Amino acid sequence: MTMPDSSPATLQQIAASLGLHVSTVSRILNASSADSTKAASPRTVERVRQYAKEIGYSPNPMGSGLRTRKTNQVAVLVPRLSDLVLSTIYEGIDEAAAEVGISTFVTNTFDDPQIQNRKLELALSRRVDGIILADSHLDGAIALELRTRKVPYVLVNRRAEGHASVTCDDYLGGRMAAEHLYAQGHRKVGVVAAQPYASTSADRQRGFVDYFREHGIHIPKNMVAQSNFDAESGAEAADQLLRRRPALTAMFAVNDFAAIGAMSTARQHGRVVGTDFAVVGFNDITIARQLSVPLTSVRSDMHGMGRQAVTMLMEVLASKPAESALLAPVLAVRASSDFQLFA
């Protein structure tokens, strides 16, 4: 017999070492004890099992999945797991999946279509049972690819028309932020938005702008500045808005980190957040209430969103119809906007 090297043993190596056909070795090692004698003679079965034990061979779970078409694995695609919102959603996914005996793995796509495609192929090469997309674009391209290939999937956090998703009611959340600022007396407002291909940004912005329009206030396009869901780009977007219209009294940022950046910029422009300038964010991350001027934010159930995505995927895997779910947002009013503006 040839001695095994340090790399993981394979069925092909065992078969070559024992002078047997790989299919025979496979039948022996993957059969139950009761069925093993049907795979080969008792002496051959003993030889194969003994040698496999000596070299530390263990069956490849992916190989098993190829036969049963079930690996009890789910892939989760996110733009960036470093994003606190996405990591919280993933915690909910992983927790709920573990409760039903499923393991998960997560991979970053950085919202880049080429990377999305590469990571998708990587996930599919692992024969996952299904995929949860947290990085879907409004065009639904990656979801459509999965549908075409008959891969079970659901969307979470972001929506795309025609695909089952679990999201916060982002449009309603945007309206709630607008209603609050309008009630506080603000009429000169700006929006720190994000990537237009993300439904989270598009829907929150649209809800906010629609509310003001319905109440006779037009928010021009130049009062909407794009950021990247982080504090630095939120600060830059807020700077653009205040330079364009120094008389602004309030800003709505579609993400809490962007809102934190906007608060910093407002101070640099000589404004006092919570006194003569209001800022409202979205998601209500933990740090929002710990700031020196606590941030008003639209709360989304990030953890629950992840858990519900797993429940929905289980329905898809069971060939049951899945309907999109909108989780209700809640406005948490804090010092950053809790004052009445007197013109």
Question: Can you characterise this structure?
Answer:
Residues 9-68 form the HTH lacI-type domain. Pfam families: LacI, Peripla_BP_1. It comes from Mycolicibacterium komossense. GO terms for molecular function: DNA binding. Keywords: DNA-binding, Transcription, Transcription regulation. With 343 residues, the chain is of the alpha/beta class. The protein has three domains: 11-59, no CATH class; 69-168 and 302-328, Rossmann fold; 170-300, Rossmann fold (3-Layer(aba) Sandwich). Helices cover 44% and strands 15% of the residues. The chain contains 13 helices and twelve strands. The chain has helices spanning 11-18, 22-30, 36-39, 42-54, 61-68, 84-99, 113-125, 141-148, 170-183, 199-214, 231-244, 256-268, 302-317; strands at 73-78, 103-108, 130-133, 153-156, 165-168, 189-193, 224-226, 250-253, 278-283, 296-299, 325-327, 330-332. The strands form two sheets. It has a six-stranded parallel sheet, sandwiched between helices. Strands 7-6-8-9-10-12 form a six-stranded mixed sheet, with helices on both faces. Strand 3, helix 8 and strand 4 form a beta-alpha-beta unit. Residues 1-7 and 60-68 have low confidence and may be disordered.
